[in-house]
Design brief:
- A hairpin with a 2-residue loop joins strand 7 (144-151) and strand 8 (154-163).
- The chain contains three helices and twelve strands; from the N terminus they run H-E-E-E-E-E-E-E-E-H-H-E-E-E-E.
- Strands 3, 6, 10, 11 and 12 form a five-stranded mixed β-sheet that branches. A five-stranded mixed β-sheet has the order 5-4-7-8-9. A two-stranded antiparallel sheet has the order 1-2.
- It folds into two domains: 1-31, no CATH class; 59-205, Aromatic compound dioxygenase (Protocatechuate 3,4-Dioxygenase, subunit A, Sandwich), CATH 2.60.130.10.
- It is an alpha/beta fold.
- 28% of the residues are buried.
- The longest helix is centred in the first third of the chain and has 27 residues, at 3-29.
- It starts with a helix and ends with a strand.
């Protein structure tokens, strides 16, 4: 048999050998994502939502908040197959630099210039973005941001976001309750960039 006739046969055999590996690779790529773990809502979800509740928590009406470390918080909302959850709304709420929430249970001590709560709808790619501060600690808790995802009247997820490398995490009772794999999903770095601090927090939902 000539070399020219052997080459197609060798190519066919090579393709047949490679097919199982290619199939395994495709299955691995299609493996479901681990859902973002839920956590308690906590006591300070707003009793009444503020009139100003857009993506920018550093500006309330005409007031500009100058405390804390300004940061961008952004990410995407997808299902376990990686598909954007279009129509979803993401809410965040957190304390100001001094550790106070806009909530009557916190004595009304929050800085009025800090919006403290924001809500945005994701875009067609499932993306969301907030302008806020690196979360601050308060008595008994490590720095965190509360996160809630809604789809119409449905509440899909309530969780909390933590700062990677924050030493208080190891002493926080809610962070400690999470399995290591779940901690990794809700603990993200606030990295320095040319545009200031930035954190990327992807949210994966197990939709029924």
């Amino acid at each position: 048999m000539t070399l020219s006739r052997q080459l197609p046969r060798r190519a066919l055999l090579a393709a047949l050998v490679a097919m199982p590996a290619l199939r395994l690779g495709a299955l691995a790529q299609a493996a479901p994502r681990r859902p973002t773990p839920s956590q308690t809502e906590g006591p300070f979800y707003p009793v009444q939502l503020p009139s100003d509740r857009d993506h920018d928590l550093l500006r309330t009406g005409t007031r500009q908040y100058t405390g804390g470390q300004p940061a961008w918080l952004e990410g995407e909302v997808v299902d376990v197959e990686g598909r954007p959850v279009t129509g979803a709304a993401v809410e965040i709420w957190q304390c100001d630099e001094a550790g106070h929430y806009h909530h009557p249970g916190d004595g009304g001590r929050a800085n009025p210039a800090f919006q403290g709560f924001g809500r945005v709808e994701v875009d067609r790619q499932g993306l969301y973005r907030f302008r806020t501060i690196r979360p601050a600690p308060y008595s008994g808790r490590t720095p965190h941001i509360h996160v809630k995802v809604r789809l119409g009247s449905r509440e899909l997820l309530t969780t909390q976001l933590y700062v990677e490398g924050e030493p208080r995490n190891a002493r926080d009772f809610l962070w400690q309750r999470l399995a290591p794999a779940d901690r990794a999903l809700v603990t993200v770095p606030f990295a320095s960039t040319s545009d200031g601090l930035r954190a990327h927090f992807p949210i994966t939902l197990a939709l029924a």
